């Protein structure tokens, strides 16, 4: 344990000559470095963002018949956003070489790293490698790809990934549809009514499959209507959003804030987009659905999603539930 701690500190400070001496000393004492030692040194290289040292150390681990743990790999690809393209390629190759039987979770880590950096083409190439190694992609794999395409504004590629997902008989989730809606919304331009129609068709398809639209879906549709300049449909979708019981959020207000919608509607959206009101509405839902009403305030506080102060009263929010008073004095 002492050697492991010293090795971690030396790697953290990029003192690799002393680290080699420490490894030689451990071998001389008949106590060669184990998997934990290698793992901690690799983690220190990643934390210190010394990406040039990551690949050689992973090779050393492979020569010693050790493989990095899943936690270390996750940390590695979480930190690669600061690495350049060349370092990223080398780290990916080293990881694939060290773990020929990598699980779908490991591949998803690398896919997420590529998609976050905007390297969608490399992510698709990795997906082919994944299938070639007889590892079946899951929902997370395709969700990551579709979200990466949405960030890049590549609607055609996002739709192709969605079709491939269907072809592989993988059921989409609400996150899948949220990413696909964002890809459609980003393709909206002034006077482009086709994009809005596609959003509406996708909305109907999602509803037919039994999904309940959330605020992400509605915000994407609102953004598409705004960018295409169709204020009439923008107003219609705002009313539909309320009818579906979906709470506005600050992104909803940011979308409609500088449009020429009726003033009363804008004021209503601004008021209902207040995050305190949204928290209080969710808190009231917990109370109304809780079997033991006396324990309901405690359950609401234990959810860790709400502030310990009561929001200001609103015109359409009567001051219900006196049992909350002791929590908001």
Description:
The chain is mainly alpha-helical and 329 residues long. The chain contains 18 helices and no strands. The two termini are 51 Å apart.
Order of helices and strands: HHHHHHHHHHHHHHHHHH
Uncertain ranges: 290-329
Approximate strand percentage: under 5%
Estimate the global geometry from the Cα principal axes: elongated
Q: What is the total tally of β strands?
A: 0
Q: Which percent range fits the helix content?
A: 55-70%
Q: What is the average of the pLDDT values?
A: 76
Radius of gyration (Å): 26 Å
Count every helix, treating DSSP H or I runs of 4 or more residues as helices.
Answer: 18
Major beta sheet summary: none
Report how far apart the termini are.
51 Å
Structural class estimated from helices and strands: mainly alpha
Region (Disordered): 285-329
Keywords: Repeat
Protein name: Pentacotripeptide-repeat region of PRORP domain-containing protein
PPR repeats: 103-137, 138-172, 214-248
